[in-house]
Amino acid sequence: MAPDLRGLGASTRAQDGYDAATLAADVEGLLDAVGEPTAAVVAIDAAVPAAFLLAVRRPDRVRRLVLMESLLGSLPGAEDFLASGLRVKSAMP
To answer: Would you tell me how many other CB atoms lie within 10 Å of the CB of residue 75?
Structure first.
């Protein structure tokens, strides 16, 4: 599945809701709508903050997380996680 985030691709341009928290909730709502309890989430560029926030807030819903071509800045709601430092699990042996 490759959903359009709000206002991107062929989706209708909403007045607001472009923050990472709302976009993460949109993706979680999509998982609910299709009856998927968990997903492997892959995000690139502008979708990275939303995917990261989804994984931080709902780790029970994200089996694997791949983030590409973006920098994480300030993410409201993820301060505690970021303060403790990122723990990266390598796929390499």
So the answer is: 19
